[in-house]
Specification:
This protein is α+β, with helices and mostly antiparallel strands and 234 residues long. 38% of the residues lie in helices and 15% in strands. Among the domains are: 66 residues, no CATH class; 75 residues, no CATH class. Helix 6 crosses helix 8 and helix 8 packs antiparallel against helix 9. The longest helix is centred in the last third of the chain and has 13 residues.
């Protein structure tokens, strides 16, 4: 590989865009690196060092990257017109472990000319701005706000796994039941919305784990039970 191009790829953590490469080397240099198997095109105008592309043969190149690199590649392709959202945003917020092979989820304003591609799912959202408070930068990645990410991800997770990220986000003081309730209000047709609303009620009551929720609903309830002051500091 051309030494200048190699240095640019290394500075990008294994990733380079066509626009950045053209500023320092001719286009044929990039094309030659791809022909020689030194770079792999993972998205239009986005290239990654070949040794970083692993995973399952036959899968989209983007899905064969380390998840964090895949997120960076998708955002580089979006060029400031989208943010990580849904399950990808949960991973960026540290609430869901990413895995090689995961799809990258991006949300974009309706005016942006981005479409779903192999390895990337694009959601067009009316009223979304790629600016605070709609999005934030977390660990160098542009992501949707936490409350929106939790609401968006609710139907995408298996029913048994839906509550854990919400409970952890509240326990870690990343958000509050009240802020999540506001975000839920913007999704009137959300799958299993009643269960989400009930979970927020339990968290507002002071429950902080599935066991406490179970106890609230099945033990400390019923006729004759006194009014409790819950989560009393001792």
């Amino acid at each position: 590989m051309n030494s200048v191009l190699r240095e640019l790829v290394e500075l990008g953590g294994g990733l380079v865009t066509l626009g950045a490469a053209r500023q320092v080397v001719p286009s044929w240099t990039l094309e030659s690196a791809c022909r020689n198997g030194e770079l792999v095109r993972v998205l239009p105008e986005v290239f990654v060092a070949a040794h970083l592309v692993g995973g399952r043969p036959g899968a989209p190149a983007l899905s064969r990257l380390d998840p964090v690199l895949g997120h960076r590649a998708a955002l580089a392709w979006a060029g400031g017109r989208a943010a990580l959202s849904h399950l990808s945003a949960l991973s960026a917020w540290g609430l869901r472990p990413p895995a090689v092979g995961d799809l990258v989820h991006l949300s974009t304003p309706t005016s942006a000319n981005l479409r779903t591609r192999p390895g990337v799912v694009v959601y067009r959202r009316r009223g979304l701005l790629i600016a605070p408070p709609h999005v934030v930068v977390r660990q160098g990645l542009t992501v949707t706000c936490l409350e929106q990410a939790l609401v968006d991800s609710w139907p995408a997770l298996p029913p048994a796994e839906r509550r854990a990220p919400v409970i952890r986000a509240v326990n870690d003081w990343l958000t509050t039941p009240e802020r999540l309730r506001v975000a839920l209000g913007s999704a009137p047709r959300l799958t299993d919305r009643a269960a989400f609303r009930k979970l927020l009620t339990r968290l507002a009551d002071g429950c902080r784990s599935p066991l406490e929720i179970w106890g609230h609903e099945n033990v400390f309830t019923g006729p004759g039970m006194p009014a409790f002051r819950r989560q009393m500091p001792v």
